[in-house]
Amino acid sequence: MTVTDDKNEKQVVSKQRVADHGEVYTAKREVNAMLDLVKEETERIDSRFLEPACGTGNFLVEILNRKMEAVRKKFSKNRYEFDLASAQAVSSMYGVELLPDNVETCRQRLFDTYKELYNSMGPTSSSLQGSDRRGLSPELERCIRFLLKKNILCGDALTMLQQDGLPITFCEWTFIGTGGKVKRRDFELSELLKNVEYDKPKTGEEGLLFADTGEPTFVHLPKREYPLTDYLKLSDYE
Questions:
Q1: Strands 25-26 and 2-3
Q2: Phi/psi of residue 143, each to 5°?
Q3: Span 176-229, pLDDT tens digits
Q4: What is the pLDDT of residues 35-80, one digit of tens each?
């Protein structure tokens, strides 16, 4: 689903795109109304969201707004904790989009939104002084852009294939404690969506990437695992 922001409340880009791809925009008030149905989850820093037709990202942008507000409330006086929690918030949002131009726009909008929120609500504002009052570091910017590159993919959520014909594969980013270490595991989306089995008892191993809370799941082996890594160096293991 594709939506607009308050500055551009048009419903379509062109009639041809509607005919070819069914691309119709949704007003921002509807976005917020739908997100309010799961309000507590949108305000939880590590709660994962997948938008299977993310368009230019208005659903994800609004989720990011809410998550970053939660980060601000908890960590605005500590730069290290704020940076770490903000990266975790970004890592928890996933999108699939059919049109390549929308994918690029979505990634850039999310980054621009993140940067604006970081500079306005984090330790770069009036909560710290002197040399601590600086903007987004190059290391953190690289981390955020890398997470968005891996989490916002060009593909078809119906066929579960990427634009290049390979299976849509998402990274599970597990932040370990407060030490800045992250465990990355890659899973094919088609396998993740096979997890729910209502006719089988719980195994005690619930909680995969997009499993609903409380539902029994199968635990599939990841397509690939990476060594425990500092969150600012995730792209070094690509």
A1: parallel
A2: -60, -50
A3: 998 999 999 999 999 888 754 434 444 444 445 565 555 555 567 899 999 999
A4: 999 999 999 999 999 999 999 998 999 999 999 999 999 998 899 9
Read off the pTM.
Answer: 0.80
Q: Which amino acid is at 160?
A: M
Q: In whole angstroms, what separates CA 16 from the centre of its chain?
A: 29
38 touches 32 (CB < 8 A): no
* DSSP, res 15: H
User: Which helix (H) or strand (E) segment is 187 a member of?
Assistant: strand 181-188
CB distance 27 to 8 below 8 Å: no
With beta carbons less than 8 A apart as the criterion, state whether 209 and 187 touch. Answer: yes
Burial class (CB in 10 A: 0-12, 13-18, 19+), 226: middle
Q: Which long-range contacts (CB under 8 A, 24 or more apart) does 184-189 make?
A: 184/225, 184/226, 184/229, 184/234, 184/237, 185/222, 185/224, 185/225, 185/226, 186/222, 186/223, 186/224, 186/225, 187/220, 187/222, 187/223, 188/160, 188/223, 189/96, 189/157, 189/160
Beta bridge partner(s), residue 124: none
Asked if residue 77 lies in contact with residue 127, where contact means CB atoms within 8 angstroms, the answer is: yes
